Amino acid sequence: MSASVSARCLAAAALAAAVVGTVALPASAADHPRQDRPKVEISAVQYDAPGRDDRSGRSLNKEWVELTNTTRHEINLHGWTLSDESGDTYTFRRYRLAPRATVRIHTGEGRDTRSDLFQDRRREVWGNRADTATLRNDRDRFVDEKSWGHDRHHGGDRQHGGDRH
């Protein structure tokens, strides 16, 4: 009888371990996608400034890209870049994006604040018909992109291409 009890105890222990392992697996699997989510994303783009594109400061500053920090931690953007398809690149200097905050990067000239940064350009950057804004970190690794106006036969409009590198 003792061998029978031992066998039952061993079988029960094995079953309990299997159940615990099965229950724990989805929790660890659920954590994985959160690690892949971008910490900073391109949340909006105003690529065609309202009104006439006359290269005035007012017109250039109505052309912008917004970045949002999706985490609960401040992110140092020093050395990160924001670029268009033509290679026009803005490099962030000494800027930290607060948790859950958004910053707007204007094309024209102005005084940088916590919520608005300026590229200090004297001409438009973002194509009105089609273009792609690409964000890369300080190691030149892809973070996010937003595209508009591309022919649907060649990939169509891409929004937040977080899985495309």
Detailed description of the structure:
The chain is of the alpha+beta class. The chain has 2 helices and 10 strands, in the order αβαβββββββββ. It has helices at 2-36, 57-60; strands spanning 40-46, 64-69, 75-76, 81-83, 89-91, 96-97, 102-106, 116-118, 131-136, 142-148. The strands form 3 sheets. A 4-stranded mixed beta sheet has the order 1-2-7-8, with no helix packed on it. Strand 4 and strand 5 (89-91) form a beta hairpin. The chain is globular. 21% of the residues are buried.
Element layout with pairings:
Blueprint: H1 2-36, E1 40-46, H2 57-60, E2 64-69, E3 75-76, E4 81-83, E5 89-91, E6 96-97, E7 102-106, E8 116-118, E9 131-136, E10 142-148
Parallel strand pairs: 7-8
Antiparallel strand pairs: 1-2, 2-7, 3-6, 4-5, 4-9, 9-10
